Amino acid sequence: MTTAAYDLGQRFHAALITGDWPAIRSMLHDDATWTLPGDNTISGTVVGADAVVERAQKIASYGLSFELLHVLVSRENMALSLHNTAQRPDAILDEYLTTVCRLRDGRIADIETYLSDVPGMNAFFV
Length: 126
Description:
33% of the residues lie in helices and 44% in strands.
């Protein structure tokens, strides 16, 4: 599973930076969830593959640069270590995060994101 998990992480990141939403959808189970910390427009848990894709689209709509630092794998799961940056006239986002993906049958069943700067995220995603 380790090689497959690594490849899935690479493909997920590539689809994210190119906006290939159908590719992301194909990597998710129908009942996939995604949980983000904070108290802003992208925080909380969404349920369902379509909701996960909508959240990814919303995040990307803020003009983020998703720099992949590492794809990390465990025996059965994977995580993306990212450095996300973006700028608006009134706010700057500069955060490190890890997005942990729990896998089931070679696809993503659950995503949980851990952030280095929750207050910064709250200020940016208004």
